[in-house]
Amino acid sequence: MKSIGGGIAGAFAGLCCAGAPIVLAFLTGIGLGFLINDFILFPILFISLGFMFYSLHYNKKKHLNTLPIYTAIISTIFIIIGIFYTPVIWLGVIGLFMSTIWDYTLIKKCKNCKIK
What we know:
It is elongated, with a radius of gyration of 15 Å. The chain is built from 5 helices and no strands. It has helices at 3-18, 21-29, 38-63, 67-84, 89-109. The longest helix has 26 residues, at 38-63. By secondary structure, it is an all-alpha fold. It has one domain.
């Protein structure tokens, strides 16, 4: 269940790295314009993705389904490619959101989880 925050943070950091106008305007509007620097955003992106993968792995031990992790790996590859070719990043962001929501629903539906 912890992967929701990591996936959302990773997707948000990916959008910041890509320079999505709505995210950049939001950050500037709330006074966090200093975050619009790749020197700051790349570590945030990789830390949040690491947290997300740790959470997905931890939850995989409960529901025994590896497909959300594979979806997140493919989405991370799209985000890394999307940093240099911006239209591709949207596939990665959608994939990260989908993998975290998928993992969350698997945990909620799990009645006989291996680890409680």
